[in-house]
Amino acid sequence: MTETARTLWIRHPLACADERAAGGVVIAGTRIVEAVPAGGQPSQAVDETFDASRHVLLPGLVNTHHHFYQTLTRAYSPALNKELFPWLTTLYDVWANLDESQLALASELAMVELLMSGCTTVADHHYVFSGALLNAIDQQVETARRLGVRAALTRGSMSVGRDDGGLPPQSVVQDEQTIIDDSQRLIERYHERGDGAMVTLALAPCSPFSVSRELMQESARLAEMHDVRLHTHLAETEDETDYCQRLFGMRPLDYLEDCGWLSNRSWLAHGIHFNDDEVQRLGRAGTGIAHCPSSNMVLGSGMCRTLELEAAGAPVGLAVDGSASNDHSNLAGEMRQAMLLGRLRYSPSELTHDAVIRWATRGSARCLGRDDIGGLEPGQQADLALFRLDELRFSGAENPLAALLLCGAHRADRVMVAGRWRVVDALPCDVDLEALMARHDEAARRLRAAL
Ligand SMILES: [Zn+2]
């Protein structure tokens, strides 16, 4: 038996998100091989055990949308208290000066922050490709591999700059052929297929208001050819609906369908301003929605129709969104936000803590087109998040799972990705956190000073 195939029983957790695994899970190599019932024992002798009697066990959380580089522009005074379009135009000029060393620090910091919150699969939507950032995705792949985190990276793009009536400065847009060629290069070099993939690539034009129709169509064609997924922002604000009506003579979802994107290959960030008919069409198509509650509240964008979308058949996942509109990258914290925001629309009996945990795990996994992560049953990847409740905020809590959301869990004690512990005693493995923060903060200062 090789070292990696040794078995480890995460024994008798305090509570578990899947009651079929109430006695814990047995890990061999990168996978879960057995779910142990409450009070039970594994069917075969195990090599090691981990006493989880003080831990709440969840499948590793899965993030579906982020912009890592935005950790460098958190709580940035000129962009505060603005709606999406003026917020974007303020920040584009800062982001246009990003360089590779800044992006590397931003990506590492965001991935570590997610990991420490219990997230085992990070996602990023990087669409700023100035001349200094041509290797942005290559760099993110390298960082994800070094940290041992699973990553769904997307090759973003912008092709309509201010000269052509778009919002971004001309220096961060690229021509369509350059984008397509680079997308193809990245897929061929980095996209892993099948169960256990650690790095996947998807194609992600930024939004209907920053790319051409041709690029939307060509991205869909390329994604089908290479069997990779498609991602974009859609239906985030009423301004966007007006923009699409004015420019394309149709609503955002009609435009999306027109470009060949209304399918189960796509997942959309935000997905707020859909009417009843559109919700049904998304459900029939199986198009995923990355729900970003904090960002939607910060920018005053509106509220995603999560439960209607799910009932219609659309996968609904959870996302922290970029750190200039959240401004944290804490997926555990985002679960609380999703539950509280949801209860302004739905009754507490419908919008339960279990529903939100479902979005942050299996729902998110479905958005990313994966059925090998997001659960605790045998065959799933060994991606786990374990939370302890010995903090002031949890003291006196009766229901451990509900307490994670209601009392505001924000830091996992243990996180495992593909069978490897990546967070131990609430600290990331192989990362000098103080040094990373110091370098990241310095990079943020430099970026602001460049304006
Ligand atoms: Zn976004």
TrEMBL record:
Protein family per UniProt: Belongs to the metallo-dependent hydrolases superfamily. ATZ/TRZ family.
Pfam name, any one: Amidohydro_1
Name recorded for this polypeptide: 8-oxoguanine deaminase
NCBIfam families to which the protein is assigned, alphabetical: PRK08203.1
One MF term in the entry's GO annotations: 8-oxoguanine deaminase activity
Superkingdom: Bacteria
Start and end residues of each Amidohydrolase-related domain: 56-399
Catalytic activity, EC: 3.5.4.32
Keywords (A to Z) from UniProt: Hydrolase
UniProt entry tagged with the keyword Hydrolase: yes
